[in-house]
Design goal:
homodimer; mainly alpha; Arc Repressor Mutant, subunit A; two-stranded antiparallel ribbon; elongated; DNA-binding
DNA sequence: TATTGCTGCGCAATCCGTTGAATAAGTAGT
DNA sequence: ACTACTTATTCAACGGATTGCGCAGCAATA
Protein backbone atom coordinates (compact mmCIF):
# COMPACT_ATOMS: atom_id res chain seq x y z
CA UNK A 1 0.00 0.00 0.00
CA UNK A 2 1.33 3.38 -0.84
CA UNK A 3 -1.49 5.75 -1.67
CA UNK A 4 -1.62 6.72 1.97
CA UNK A 5 2.00 7.75 1.82
CA UNK A 6 1.55 9.63 -1.40
CA UNK A 7 -1.22 11.57 0.32
CA UNK A 8 0.93 12.23 3.36
CA UNK A 9 3.69 13.53 1.10
CA UNK A 10 1.31 15.91 -0.60
CA UNK A 11 -0.01 17.10 2.74
CA UNK A 12 3.50 17.76 3.93
CA UNK A 13 3.62 21.36 2.92
CA UNK A 14 0.01 22.29 2.36
CA UNK A 15 -3.35 21.83 3.94
CA UNK A 16 -5.71 20.40 1.34
CA UNK A 17 -9.18 18.98 0.83
CA UNK A 18 -9.89 15.60 -0.71
CA UNK A 19 -10.96 17.43 -3.80
CA UNK A 20 -7.69 19.33 -3.98
CA UNK A 21 -5.73 16.13 -3.67
CA UNK A 22 -7.78 14.46 -6.37
CA UNK A 23 -6.98 17.37 -8.66
CA UNK A 24 -3.29 17.20 -7.86
CA UNK A 25 -3.35 13.53 -8.67
CA UNK A 26 -5.15 14.24 -11.90
CA UNK A 27 -2.57 16.86 -12.90
CA UNK A 28 1.13 16.95 -12.27
CA UNK A 29 1.78 13.79 -10.35
CA UNK A 30 -1.39 12.11 -11.52
CA UNK A 31 -0.21 11.70 -15.07
CA UNK A 32 2.31 9.36 -13.65
CA UNK A 33 0.38 8.17 -10.66
CA UNK A 34 -3.36 8.14 -10.46
CA UNK A 35 -6.09 7.79 -7.92
CA UNK A 36 -9.80 8.49 -8.03
CA UNK A 37 -11.57 10.73 -5.57
CA UNK A 38 -13.37 7.78 -3.97
CA UNK A 39 -10.11 6.19 -3.04
CA UNK A 40 -8.72 9.41 -1.75
CA UNK A 41 -11.73 10.16 0.45
CA UNK A 42 -11.63 6.63 1.78
CA UNK A 43 -7.96 6.83 2.54
CA UNK A 44 -8.33 10.23 4.18
CA UNK A 45 -11.03 8.74 6.38
CA UNK A 46 -8.72 5.93 7.44
CA UNK A 47 -5.81 8.26 7.98
CA UNK A 48 -8.05 10.38 10.15
CA UNK A 49 -9.15 7.36 12.18
CA UNK A 50 -5.52 6.57 12.77
CA UNK A 51 -4.75 10.16 13.74
CA UNK A 52 -2.30 10.56 10.90
CA UNK A 53 -4.20 13.58 9.64
CA UNK A 54 -6.76 15.92 11.12
CA UNK A 55 -9.18 18.27 9.43
CA UNK A 56 -11.19 21.37 10.01
CA UNK A 57 -14.56 22.08 8.55
CA UNK A 58 -14.71 25.02 6.19
CA UNK A 59 -18.21 26.22 5.37
CA UNK A 60 -18.31 28.01 2.07
CA UNK A 61 -21.04 29.99 0.44
CA UNK A 62 -21.92 29.20 -3.09
CA UNK A 63 -19.89 26.04 -2.83
CA UNK A 64 -20.38 23.00 -0.62
CA UNK A 65 -18.55 22.81 2.68
CA UNK A 66 -15.14 21.31 2.60
CA UNK A 67 -12.75 19.59 4.95
CA UNK A 68 -9.22 20.87 4.95
CA UNK A 69 -6.84 18.15 5.99
CA UNK A 70 -3.43 18.62 7.46
CA UNK A 71 -0.81 16.13 8.51
CA UNK A 72 -0.27 15.49 12.24
CA UNK A 73 2.88 14.72 14.16
CA UNK A 74 1.94 11.07 14.13
CA UNK A 75 1.41 11.24 10.39
CA UNK A 76 4.81 12.74 9.86
CA UNK A 77 6.38 10.06 12.04
CA UNK A 78 4.67 7.35 10.06
CA UNK A 79 5.84 8.94 6.83
CA UNK A 80 9.42 9.10 8.01
CA UNK A 81 9.25 5.50 9.17
CA UNK A 82 7.98 4.48 5.76
CA UNK A 83 10.64 6.49 3.98
CA UNK A 84 13.31 4.54 5.81
CA UNK A 85 11.89 1.17 4.81
CA UNK A 86 13.17 -0.15 1.46
CA UNK A 87 10.52 -0.08 -1.24
CA UNK A 88 9.71 -2.95 -3.56
CA UNK A 89 10.47 -2.25 -7.22
CA UNK A 90 7.25 -1.76 -9.17
CA UNK A 91 6.06 -4.08 -11.87
CA UNK A 92 4.90 -2.62 -15.15
CA UNK A 93 1.47 -3.75 -16.13
CA UNK A 94 1.24 -2.30 -19.53
CA UNK A 95 -1.69 -3.62 -21.51
CA UNK A 96 -0.14 -2.35 -24.68
CA UNK A 97 2.89 -4.51 -24.09
CA UNK A 98 0.69 -7.55 -23.86
CA UNK A 99 -0.77 -6.50 -27.17
CA UNK A 100 2.63 -6.39 -28.75
CA UNK A 101 3.45 -9.79 -27.30
CA UNK A 102 0.25 -11.10 -28.85
CA UNK A 103 0.94 -9.19 -32.01
CA UNK A 104 1.22 -12.18 -34.27
CA UNK A 105 -2.56 -12.41 -34.12
CA UNK A 106 -3.41 -8.93 -35.23
CA UNK A 107 -2.37 -7.17 -38.39
CA UNK A 108 0.54 -4.74 -38.27
CA UNK A 109 -1.53 -1.82 -39.46
CA UNK A 110 -3.87 -1.85 -36.47
CA UNK A 111 -0.92 -2.11 -34.10
CA UNK A 112 0.74 0.77 -35.86
CA UNK A 113 -2.39 2.86 -35.59
CA UNK A 114 -2.66 2.35 -31.87
CA UNK A 115 1.04 2.91 -31.48
CA UNK A 116 0.59 6.34 -33.02
CA UNK A 117 -2.32 7.16 -30.75
CA UNK A 118 -0.35 6.18 -27.68
CA UNK A 119 2.65 8.10 -28.92
CA UNK A 120 0.52 11.24 -29.21
CA UNK A 121 -0.55 10.87 -25.60
CA UNK A 122 2.98 10.32 -24.45
CA UNK A 123 4.27 13.28 -26.39
CA UNK A 124 1.61 15.44 -24.82
CA UNK A 125 2.61 14.29 -21.37
CA UNK A 126 6.22 14.87 -22.19
CA UNK A 127 5.53 18.48 -23.08
CA UNK A 128 3.51 19.09 -19.91
CA UNK A 129 6.25 17.61 -17.80
CA UNK A 130 8.94 19.56 -19.59
CA UNK A 131 7.07 22.81 -19.18
CA UNK A 132 6.59 22.20 -15.46
CA UNK A 133 10.19 21.16 -15.01
CA UNK A 134 11.44 24.23 -16.82
CA UNK A 135 9.34 26.48 -14.61
CA UNK A 136 10.65 24.85 -11.47
CA UNK A 137 14.19 25.03 -12.73
CA UNK A 138 13.94 28.73 -13.48
CA UNK A 139 12.52 29.53 -10.07
CA UNK A 140 15.42 27.61 -8.62
CA UNK A 141 13.84 27.13 -5.20
CA UNK A 142 15.81 24.61 -3.27
CA UNK A 143 12.81 22.84 -1.78
CA UNK A 144 11.39 22.16 -5.25
CA UNK A 145 14.35 19.97 -6.08
CA UNK A 146 12.47 16.79 -5.24
CA UNK A 147 9.42 17.69 -7.26
CA UNK A 148 11.77 18.51 -10.10
CA UNK A 149 13.41 15.12 -9.82
CA UNK A 150 10.09 13.28 -9.93
CA UNK A 151 9.22 15.25 -13.03
CA UNK A 152 12.50 14.21 -14.58
CA UNK A 153 11.51 10.60 -13.95
CA UNK A 154 8.30 11.20 -15.85
CA UNK A 155 10.19 12.88 -18.68
CA UNK A 156 12.75 10.12 -19.06
CA UNK A 157 9.97 7.56 -18.94
CA UNK A 158 8.06 9.18 -21.77
CA UNK A 159 11.20 9.55 -23.82
CA UNK A 160 12.09 5.91 -23.34
CA UNK A 161 8.61 4.90 -24.39
CA UNK A 162 8.74 7.05 -27.51
CA UNK A 163 12.12 5.61 -28.38
CA UNK A 164 10.67 2.12 -28.03
CA UNK A 165 7.71 3.05 -30.19
CA UNK A 166 10.13 4.04 -32.94
CA UNK A 167 11.86 0.69 -32.73
CA UNK A 168 8.53 -1.12 -32.95
CA UNK A 169 7.54 0.97 -35.91
CA UNK A 170 10.64 0.28 -37.95
CA UNK A 171 10.53 -3.40 -37.06
CA UNK A 172 6.92 -3.71 -38.15
CA UNK A 173 7.48 -1.75 -41.31
CA UNK A 174 10.31 -4.02 -42.30
CA UNK A 175 8.05 -7.00 -41.66
CA UNK A 176 5.27 -5.42 -43.70
CA UNK A 177 7.56 -4.94 -46.67
CA UNK A 178 8.79 -8.51 -46.47
CA UNK A 179 5.30 -9.98 -46.37
CA UNK A 180 3.91 -7.81 -49.18
CA UNK A 181 6.90 -8.50 -51.40
CA UNK A 182 6.17 -12.24 -51.09
CA UNK B 1 -8.10 -6.26 -16.09
CA UNK B 2 -5.51 -7.66 -18.36
CA UNK B 3 -3.99 -10.72 -16.77
CA UNK B 4 -6.59 -12.81 -18.58
CA UNK B 5 -5.37 -11.46 -21.88
CA UNK B 6 -1.76 -11.97 -20.96
CA UNK B 7 -2.64 -15.60 -20.28
CA UNK B 8 -4.52 -15.95 -23.54
CA UNK B 9 -1.52 -14.53 -25.37
CA UNK B 10 0.76 -17.09 -23.76
CA UNK B 11 -1.65 -19.90 -24.59
CA UNK B 12 -1.71 -18.82 -28.19
CA UNK B 13 1.03 -21.08 -29.36
CA UNK B 14 1.36 -23.64 -26.62
CA UNK B 15 -0.77 -25.75 -24.40
CA UNK B 16 0.31 -25.12 -20.81
CA UNK B 17 -0.53 -25.83 -17.21
CA UNK B 18 -1.06 -23.18 -14.57
CA UNK B 19 2.31 -24.08 -13.23
CA UNK B 20 3.95 -23.61 -16.61
CA UNK B 21 2.35 -20.20 -16.96
CA UNK B 22 3.45 -19.17 -13.50
CA UNK B 23 7.00 -20.08 -14.44
CA UNK B 24 6.82 -18.13 -17.66
CA UNK B 25 5.59 -15.14 -15.72
CA UNK B 26 8.40 -15.56 -13.24
CA UNK B 27 10.99 -15.66 -16.02
CA UNK B 28 11.01 -13.80 -19.29
CA UNK B 29 7.86 -11.74 -19.18
CA UNK B 30 7.49 -11.87 -15.46
CA UNK B 31 10.44 -9.68 -14.77
CA UNK B 32 8.47 -6.96 -16.41
CA UNK B 33 5.02 -8.17 -15.55
CA UNK B 34 4.28 -10.35 -12.59
CA UNK B 35 1.57 -12.61 -11.33
CA UNK B 36 1.50 -15.20 -8.61
CA UNK B 37 0.37 -18.73 -9.20
CA UNK B 38 -2.76 -18.23 -7.12
CA UNK B 39 -3.93 -15.51 -9.42
CA UNK B 40 -3.16 -17.53 -12.48
CA UNK B 41 -5.07 -20.58 -11.28
CA UNK B 42 -7.98 -18.36 -10.37
CA UNK B 43 -7.97 -16.67 -13.72
CA UNK B 44 -7.68 -19.98 -15.54
CA UNK B 45 -10.73 -21.15 -13.63
CA UNK B 46 -12.69 -18.12 -14.73
CA UNK B 47 -11.51 -18.41 -18.29
CA UNK B 48 -12.63 -22.01 -18.25
CA UNK B 49 -16.06 -21.07 -16.92
CA UNK B 50 -16.36 -18.62 -19.77
CA UNK B 51 -15.23 -21.21 -22.30
CA UNK B 52 -12.23 -19.15 -23.30
CA UNK B 53 -9.94 -22.06 -22.53
CA UNK B 54 -10.39 -25.77 -22.04
CA UNK B 55 -8.16 -28.32 -20.41
CA UNK B 56 -7.37 -31.98 -20.35
CA UNK B 57 -6.32 -33.93 -17.34
CA UNK B 58 -2.86 -35.40 -17.48
CA UNK B 59 -2.18 -38.01 -14.82
CA UNK B 60 1.50 -38.31 -14.11
CA UNK B 61 3.40 -40.75 -12.05
CA UNK B 62 5.85 -39.45 -9.55
CA UNK B 63 4.40 -35.99 -9.99
CA UNK B 64 0.91 -34.75 -9.25
CA UNK B 65 -1.66 -34.68 -12.01
CA UNK B 66 -1.80 -31.60 -14.12
CA UNK B 67 -4.25 -29.76 -16.26
CA UNK B 68 -3.03 -28.72 -19.65
CA UNK B 69 -4.93 -25.70 -20.84
CA UNK B 70 -5.40 -24.63 -24.40
CA UNK B 71 -7.14 -21.65 -25.89
CA UNK B 72 -10.52 -22.18 -27.56
CA UNK B 73 -12.04 -20.50 -30.58
CA UNK B 74 -14.03 -18.27 -28.26
CA UNK B 75 -10.88 -17.40 -26.39
CA UNK B 76 -9.11 -16.44 -29.57
CA UNK B 77 -12.09 -14.32 -30.62
CA UNK B 78 -12.08 -12.55 -27.28
CA UNK B 79 -8.36 -11.96 -27.57
CA UNK B 80 -8.68 -10.48 -31.03
CA UNK B 81 -11.57 -8.29 -29.89
CA UNK B 82 -9.45 -7.04 -27.03
CA UNK B 83 -6.45 -6.42 -29.26
CA UNK B 84 -8.57 -4.14 -31.41
CA UNK B 85 -9.79 -2.07 -28.49
CA UNK B 86 -7.52 0.84 -27.59
CA UNK B 87 -5.70 0.22 -24.34
CA UNK B 88 -5.59 2.69 -21.50
CA UNK B 89 -2.11 4.02 -20.81
CA UNK B 90 -0.76 2.47 -17.64
CA UNK B 91 -0.18 4.37 -14.47
CA UNK B 92 3.13 3.93 -12.74
CA UNK B 93 2.80 3.36 -9.05
CA UNK B 94 6.35 3.61 -8.02
CA UNK B 95 6.75 3.79 -4.27
CA UNK B 96 10.30 4.96 -4.70
CA UNK B 97 9.12 7.97 -6.64
CA UNK B 98 6.83 8.93 -3.80
CA UNK B 99 9.86 8.71 -1.58
CA UNK B 100 11.79 11.10 -3.75
CA UNK B 101 8.84 13.46 -3.81
CA UNK B 102 8.81 13.37 -0.02
CA UNK B 103 12.57 13.54 0.07
CA UNK B 104 12.80 16.80 1.93
CA UNK B 105 11.92 14.88 5.06
CA UNK B 106 14.62 12.27 4.95
CA UNK B 107 18.35 12.73 4.80
CA UNK B 108 20.15 12.43 1.48
CA UNK B 109 22.38 9.62 2.60
CA UNK B 110 19.52 7.20 3.23
CA UNK B 111 17.97 8.07 -0.10
CA UNK B 112 21.28 7.51 -1.81
CA UNK B 113 21.67 4.16 -0.13
CA UNK B 114 18.31 2.94 -1.33
CA UNK B 115 18.95 4.38 -4.73
CA UNK B 116 22.03 2.20 -5.00
CA UNK B 117 20.13 -0.89 -3.92
CA UNK B 118 17.43 -0.28 -6.49
CA UNK B 119 20.04 0.43 -9.13
CA UNK B 120 21.65 -2.95 -8.47
CA UNK B 121 18.33 -4.68 -9.01
CA UNK B 122 17.69 -2.76 -12.19
CA UNK B 123 21.14 -3.49 -13.55
CA UNK B 124 20.61 -7.17 -12.89
CA UNK B 125 17.32 -7.12 -14.75
CA UNK B 126 18.90 -5.22 -17.57
CA UNK B 127 21.52 -7.92 -18.03
CA UNK B 128 18.95 -10.71 -17.99
CA UNK B 129 16.86 -8.92 -20.58
CA UNK B 130 19.85 -8.18 -22.75
CA UNK B 131 20.98 -11.78 -22.65
CA UNK B 132 17.52 -13.03 -23.61
CA UNK B 133 17.18 -10.44 -26.35
CA UNK B 134 20.56 -11.32 -27.79
CA UNK B 135 19.65 -14.98 -27.89
CA UNK B 136 16.39 -14.28 -29.69
CA UNK B 137 18.11 -11.95 -32.10
CA UNK B 138 20.72 -14.55 -33.02
CA UNK B 139 18.17 -17.23 -33.62
CA UNK B 140 16.39 -14.77 -35.87
CA UNK B 141 13.06 -16.59 -35.88
CA UNK B 142 10.42 -14.38 -37.36
CA UNK B 143 7.72 -15.29 -34.87
CA UNK B 144 9.92 -14.25 -31.95
CA UNK B 145 9.92 -10.67 -33.16
CA UNK B 146 7.15 -9.68 -30.76
CA UNK B 147 8.77 -11.26 -27.76
CA UNK B 148 11.95 -9.50 -28.75
CA UNK B 149 10.14 -6.18 -28.88
CA UNK B 150 8.64 -6.63 -25.42
CA UNK B 151 12.11 -7.37 -24.12
CA UNK B 152 13.36 -4.19 -25.75
CA UNK B 153 10.71 -2.32 -23.80
CA UNK B 154 12.04 -3.79 -20.61
CA UNK B 155 15.60 -2.91 -21.56
CA UNK B 156 14.82 0.70 -22.42
CA UNK B 157 12.85 1.01 -19.23
CA UNK B 158 15.73 -0.15 -17.06
CA UNK B 159 18.15 2.09 -18.89
CA UNK B 160 15.91 5.10 -18.44
CA UNK B 161 15.60 4.33 -14.75
CA UNK B 162 19.37 4.03 -14.33
CA UNK B 163 19.87 7.27 -16.16
CA UNK B 164 17.40 8.92 -13.81
CA UNK B 165 19.18 7.45 -10.80
CA UNK B 166 22.38 9.13 -11.97
CA UNK B 167 20.64 12.46 -12.18
CA UNK B 168 19.24 12.06 -8.69
CA UNK B 169 22.65 11.12 -7.38
CA UNK B 170 24.46 14.13 -8.78
CA UNK B 171 21.67 16.45 -7.67
CA UNK B 172 21.75 15.12 -4.13
CA UNK B 173 25.52 15.20 -3.95
CA UNK B 174 25.54 18.82 -5.01
CA UNK B 175 22.98 19.54 -2.30
CA UNK B 176 25.04 17.65 0.26
CA UNK B 177 28.13 19.71 -0.49
CA UNK B 178 26.18 22.94 -0.23
CA UNK B 179 24.67 22.07 3.11
CA UNK B 180 27.90 20.83 4.67
CA UNK B 181 29.88 23.85 3.45
CA UNK B 182 27.44 26.09 5.37
C1' DT C 1 -35.32 27.15 -19.78
C1' DA C 2 -32.62 23.05 -20.03
C1' DT C 3 -28.44 21.00 -20.09
C1' DT C 4 -23.87 20.61 -19.07
C1' DG C 5 -19.89 21.29 -16.03
C1' DC C 6 -17.52 22.30 -11.79
C1' DT C 7 -16.89 22.05 -6.73
C1' DG C 8 -17.39 18.85 -2.94
C1' DC C 9 -18.49 14.71 -0.34
C1' DG C 10 -19.87 10.03 0.33
C1' DC C 11 -21.77 4.70 0.02
C1' DA C 12 -22.05 0.00 -1.89
C1' DA C 13 -20.76 -3.82 -4.69
C1' DT C 14 -17.53 -6.07 -6.91
C1' DC C 15 -13.14 -7.25 -8.53
C1' DC C 16 -8.24 -7.71 -8.37
C1' DG C 17 -4.16 -8.87 -5.86
C1' DT C 18 -1.47 -10.41 -2.03
C1' DT C 19 -0.42 -13.36 1.77
C1' DG C 20 -0.58 -17.50 3.99
C1' DA C 21 -1.46 -22.01 4.21
C1' DA C 22 -2.61 -26.97 3.05
C1' DT C 23 -1.98 -31.26 0.43
C1' DA C 24 0.78 -34.64 -1.97
C1' DA C 25 4.66 -37.17 -3.73
C1' DG C 26 9.19 -37.33 -5.64
C1' DT C 27 14.15 -35.99 -5.76
C1' DA C 28 18.54 -34.23 -4.14
C1' DG C 29 21.62 -32.96 -0.81
C1' DT C 30 23.88 -33.09 4.41
C1' DA D 1 17.60 -40.22 8.36
C1' DC D 2 16.37 -35.54 7.98
C1' DT D 3 15.76 -31.43 5.50
C1' DA D 4 14.83 -28.79 1.64
C1' DC D 5 13.39 -28.05 -2.89
C1' DT D 6 10.45 -28.97 -7.13
C1' DT D 7 6.13 -30.10 -9.38
C1' DA D 8 1.19 -29.26 -9.15
C1' DT D 9 -3.20 -27.46 -7.53
C1' DT D 10 -6.43 -25.17 -4.49
C1' DC D 11 -8.79 -22.62 -0.47
C1' DA D 12 -9.49 -18.76 2.69
C1' DA D 13 -9.07 -14.11 4.23
C1' DC D 14 -8.03 -9.49 3.78
C1' DG D 15 -7.32 -5.16 1.75
C1' DG D 16 -6.77 -2.20 -2.20
C1' DA D 17 -8.89 -0.43 -6.38
C1' DT D 18 -12.49 0.30 -9.67
C1' DT D 19 -17.13 1.20 -11.12
C1' DG D 20 -21.47 2.93 -10.47
C1' DC D 21 -24.44 5.64 -8.09
C1' DG D 22 -26.35 9.57 -5.28
C1' DC D 23 -26.64 14.14 -3.15
C1' DA D 24 -26.11 19.25 -3.39
C1' DG D 25 -25.80 23.81 -5.24
C1' DC D 26 -23.76 27.28 -8.27
C1' DA D 27 -22.21 29.05 -12.96
C1' DA D 28 -22.32 29.30 -17.68
C1' DT D 29 -23.99 28.34 -22.06
C1' DA D 30 -27.11 26.94 -25.70
Amino acid sequence: MSLRHAILVLLQDQEASGYDLAREFANSIGLVWNATHQQIYLELGKLNDQHMVKFRHIPQDGKPDKKLYRITEEGRDELIRWLRKPAAPPRIRDAFMVKIAGGALSDSSSILRELDDQADLRRERLHTFEALAKKLDEQGREKDLFTYLTLRRGILDQQAWLHWADEVKTALNKREILSTSV
